[in-house]
Amino acid sequence: MTPTPRPVGAGQVGDGPGLLAGPILRRVDPRGVCVWIATSEPVAASLWVYRAGHQDDGAVGGGAAVSVRLGQRLWVHLLTARPSGQRFPTDELLTYDLELQRPASGWSGRLAELGLLDGANTLAYPGVGLPSLFVRQGGASCTARARTRCCAPTSCWSTPAPIWRSGRARCF
C-alpha cells in the first residue's frame, strides 16, 4: 500500500527524529528510486518523486521504507519509490522528498522541517526547491547534487550486509 503524500509544512519543527545520515540515493532507474537514511529512533518513512518544479501536480511515484534496527540508537531505512505509471519520466529533471513520522509522538515532517532545504545544509540546488535526480533512458542515472551518490544501476549495493541478508529489504 502506497501512503498518501502530505503537504510540506505539515510537521512540527524541532520535534523530528535525529537524522544521522542521508538521504543518499542508492539506485535510480525508470522502474524505481531507492534512498537510504539512518535515524536515531524508529520512524515510518515515505519517499515521493516529482517532476522538477511541478510538486503541486502531484507525485509521479512514491513508496515506503523497510527499516532495520542496528543498534541501541540506530535505525537504517531503505525507501523505495515506484512510478505511478509504468516508468518514471526519463531524460528530465526529477525531485524527491521524504516524509518521516514518529508513531510515538505523532510528529510528521518532510525535509523542510528537518532543516535540509535552506541555508548551508541544503540538499537542493538554488531554484529547484527539493533534492534532484535524473533518470537516463537506457543508461546509468545520476543525481544532480554532490551530496548524493551517482551510481550505475548494477553497482549500487554496498549498504551494511545484515539488512540485505535478512531478506526484508529489496530494491528492484
What does this structure look like?
The chain has 1 helix and 9 strands. The chain has a single domain, classed as Immunoglobulin-like (Sandwich). A hairpin with a 2-residue loop joins strand 1 and strand 2. The longest helix is centred in the last third of the chain and has 5 residues. Strands 1, 2, 3, 4, 5, 6, 7, 8 and 9 form a 9-stranded antiparallel β-sheet that branches. With 172 residues, the chain is an all-beta fold.
Question: What layout of secondary structure does this protein have?
Answer:
Elements: E1 19-29, E2 32-39, E3 44-51, E4 61-71, E5 74-83, E6 93-102, E7 107-110, E8 132-134, E9 142-143, H1 161-165
Antiparallel strand pairs: 1-2, 2-5, 3-4, 3-6, 4-5, 6-7, 6-8, 8-9
Summarize the structure.
The protein has one helix at residues 161-165, and strands at residues 19-29, 32-39, 44-51, 61-71, 74-83, 93-102, 107-110, 132-134, 142-143. The chain is mainly beta and 172 residues long.
